[in-house]
Amino acid sequence: MLELIYTDMWPDHCGSATRRCASRIRQCVFVAIILVPLMFAAHGQTSPGPSNATERGRTFLVNLLNPDLDLLPEYRGAKVYWLFHDNYLAAKVLAVSDPKIAQRIMAAIHREGVYKSGRIQAVFGESAEPLPFRQHQLKDMRRVGNKVIRTEVATSRLFDGWEKYADLLFLACLTEKNQPAARQHWEAAMRMWDGKGFMDEAARHDQCYSTYKLGLALLAASRLSPPAEPPSGAFDRLLALQDDSGGWVTDYDATGKKFGEANVETTCLTILGIEAFTGHKQSPAK
Known about the structure:
There is one protein chain. The chain is of the alpha+beta class. It has ten helices and seven strands. The protein has a four-stranded mixed beta sheet. The protein has a three-stranded antiparallel beta sheet with strand order 5-6-7. Helix 3 (83-93) runs antiparallel to helix 4 (99-111) and helix 3 (83-93) packs parallel to helix 10. The radius of gyration is 22 Å and the shape is globular.
């Protein structure tokens, strides 16, 4: 059993005085207006809208399902199948769009005798005692051929210094019932925003930003009362970090270059964040 300290795991000139050239200019402009968007669309170069992005994300998840295990690997080609957080999150994200698959995933988790993790469940209000945060361990449940089923288990040891991590501050926002205290957690996380991502303890150590923290930021912002405004550019950056596969990659650098694989956990938290953000923006003002 290996101990886990949660450190992480968003595009003719023409010119003439004659009527003939002026006419040609108008024709060129008209044709450009019609054809250019079609050309970009044909080559897949248009930026997908939020609903299209999340739909592709769900398709990515469904296509990862191993029908023999009724579980999703960490990423395509991976031999590790995480019950918590990956498959728990996938079951939640697919509950409405693909309920039968979601039920199969949750049943597979329960067949392993696992029903909770203690931390990520705070996103859905299912964690009995989420605070104070505790350290986690990685636990191998069993092996199936060359595949291994694993999960995360909360220990009794407190996680000192969790306030240095933006993801845990966002989870605290989602957990904290006292709104002034929740707002303090939010403000602490916002002090880590450097205009590109959340430069917390893990980002400084790894020298890159974690994509899923952008998703958690959108989710936490929508849950605060009153809702908070996410960092400028975070939403667009998150959309830009979607992989061709439909999933979202693990990390990115200051230039926006993607690193790592499109994976289950990042994709799930990104979908939840995008939908929370767009749902709040589309809801009528009170």
